[in-house]
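quick one, 562 residues, struct below
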Amino acid sequence: MELHFRYNVKSISCPVKMLSGTRDRDNMLHLQHSWTPNIDHLAEFGVKLTQHVSAASLCTPSRAAFLTGRYPVRSGMVSSIGHRVLQWTGASGGLPTNETTFAKILKEKGYATGLIGKWHLGLNCESASDHCHHPLHHGFDYFYGMPFSMMGDCARWELSEKRVNLEQKLNFLFQVLALVALTLAAGKLVHLISISWMPVIWSALLAVLLLTTSCFVGALIVHADCFLMRNHTITEQPMRFQRVTPLILQEVESFLKRNKLRPFLLFVSFLHVHIPLITTKNFLGKSAHGLYGDNVEEMDWMVGQILDALDMEGLTNSTLVYFTSDHGGSLENQFGNTQYGGWNGIYKGGKGMGGWEGGIRVPGIFRWPGLLPAGRVIGDPTSLMDVFPTVVQLAGGEVPQDRVIDGRDLLPLLLGTAQHSDHEFLMHYCERFLHAARWHQRDRGTLWKVHFVTPVFQPEGAGACYGRKVCPCSGEKVVHHDPPLLFDLSRDPSEAHVLTPASEPLFYQVMERVQQAVREHQQTLSPVPLQLDRLGNLWRPWLQPCCGPFPLCWCLREDDPQ
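---
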């Protein structure tokens, strides 16, 4: 615990998540007319990372990498067949039990460890109560929030993740079976076929069952995935949206009061700013940027409330605060002429795109009054995976030596005692497929980006895959580039100008060095079960959490927040 006393480390607080639409050029948190004053204040008095990237462009793999300090392909928190995130609470996939999170190490060092908000890294393996992937099995000693994720289907929104698709499939099967039942019945009545009435009856019954299921599938999803837990107990199923924001803030304040006299780690994982953009009445219609702006402004207010709570408990000067996002804004979350998924500024692409900057470039702020220099801006490449070794070593723990840790300790860079980031190369995956890599050529001060695979935007000339939920990672709708695309991010952060041997004298040298680094990186990978592939990502009724006898999953076990 030497670092604990030497650097006055009393607590570490990690509020997450961040919108992508506050970026202005390379200064990702500057706005001419601030609609995020609390986040801007945090940045003004903290250290800003302007080349901060996530290890994946979607939440489940990105969060796995954040907590473990490892590319998600190492833990198996990826797919190979298009299932980009965990699809159901009642699925068996999740963060493997043999993975080590920074919360687990800090807990072993005597820290109180809490997670408040979204988890989305799995829950059960073999039964509805084994909770093998639960936060409490991954180093957190307190959890309050959603074991799954906020989604449009929670509010039966027009933008749907799975409800509309399931309804369409069920309606199609209903029509097929109804046609079969009618055909068999007509054939029997006119004596064209000689069968018993049983096939007719069973076909009709199955058709009615499918039609009924189609009518109720939206409500079933809401009850199956959109609920709150406190530790191992379901407290609200389904969740009541207008209660959630005050409940989360109440839980944060309570955690700080309980643990202010001991070292703690608090991971606040906001349900904002994800569709359906649940916003309390106090913020609806307040922003000039529509519902998305309302939701962002409410999240900013929540950040302010959390920082005020630190002040009230006398913890500000002894608390390291980190603020970031798990990925970029979702361009495809568009309905009519309204954009609900955010905006990525000058950066190309968005959520779900493994290589383009718009999907992986995220805000990064560290604040530690009296220790970290206020207003410092770091333009070297850094990663969410760097949080793992940084907080582990601050807490006096040891980074595991029995596995590859891809993150690097950020403290020397944050303090200014190191001139450059320890990352020379960073790899950018889309599912298990490597789409891009970046090379920080320190002696030239150049940041190169090489794209091996890119998605085909739809329609042609668009900047996203409209008509789909996210862009694909493989198959006919991606392009394998030979030679790969080369960009100089230090001069072209928008990735607008492809460099060629004719325009860049170092083209072949850069390609050779990056491809060598990719080969060396791939030699460090070991085969592991893919948690998001079909077997781990199917809904299984025996894994479905339910606060009553299944399928009567309904309860409200706690009073309204004070």
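The chain has two domains: 33-151+226-556, 161-219.
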